[in-house]
């Protein structure tokens, strides 16, 4: 019996009856030989961790565009915080921690430069629209490994696709990531907003702090414990009504005071214009795209608009700024 088979056998005896078992996966789009050491979801986790799109997350905006300071979250640190929350919940509920981690690490691979400002820009200019969860699936299915994709299991791809609030994951592990994403960004965005001087802890309404706590650490602890307590031995992942309502209210508070605050988002129009101009420029100058993207258009029948969208979505903030300066800023004006 291989190490992988021993680990799969351990899953059947230890994990909850509601867990997604590695040996019962719905499989990959392309069949391949099994690893002798790692079950399928652990293998998927490793593929995501080693892919180029994952490394680029370190230079992609979470909320604050190019903040002055080293301690603001990026899309990468957000991803790691989602993974940490999700793994804690999955371990306590005896669900599949490898699957949860794979989904969490891959859920934002398709995010644009400049955060949701970049996503909004591409959604406005691309004929088919743009949604970062769908783009994340496109990254792992099609764009990584020079067009071959990572060939991940159905369960991981499903969790990535359905991680948004409106999603309906097909596994409890996917439900954990969906909720952990919200828990992570609400709490760390409050922390960053306080660091940036947009909020003070006392600004948060008492109706929310009374239920959730009066610091980021306490709120995280409250939410994670509440999910575990209310989901134990249940066929769904859930919070108590009181905590769920407080989280929803806190999310509305953040939209009103941070996510749509001109002081926090004052540079977003510039980012939107930058992305829109790059999109228009590349659609008129396809020859400037890397060879992989030209092949997608020429040999695989992808539309010009989709190929350009894929290329821009994969850019980091700094690379997008560099390309914008290269194409639109006169040489003598560049710093």
Description of the molecule:
The protein is an all-alpha fold. It has a domain of 191 residues: Hypothetical protein af1432, CATH 1.10.3210. The chain is built from 17 helices and no strands. Helix 14 crosses helix 17. The longest helix is centred in the middle third of the chain and has 24 residues. The chain is flat and about 65 Å long.
Compact description:
With 335 residues, this protein is mostly helical. It contains 17 helices and no strands.
Task: Tell me about the largest β-sheet.
Answer: none
Per CATH, the class of the domain at 3-45 and 60-108 and 167-265 reads Mainly Alpha
CATH superfamily of the domain at 3-45 and 60-108 and 167-265: Hypothetical protein af1432
Please name the CATH topology of the domain at 3-45 and 60-108 and 167-265: Hypothetical protein af1432
Structural class: mainly alpha
Fraction of residues in helix:
55-70%
Mean pLDDT: 94
Low-confidence stretches: none
Silhouette: flat
Can you name the CATH architecture of the domain at 3-45 and 60-108 and 167-265? Orthogonal Bundle
Element-by-element helix/strand order: HHHHHHHHHHHHHHHHH
From the alpha carbons, calculate the radius of gyration and give it in angstroms.
Answer: 21 Å
Care to count the β-strands?
Answer: 0
* Count, helices: 17
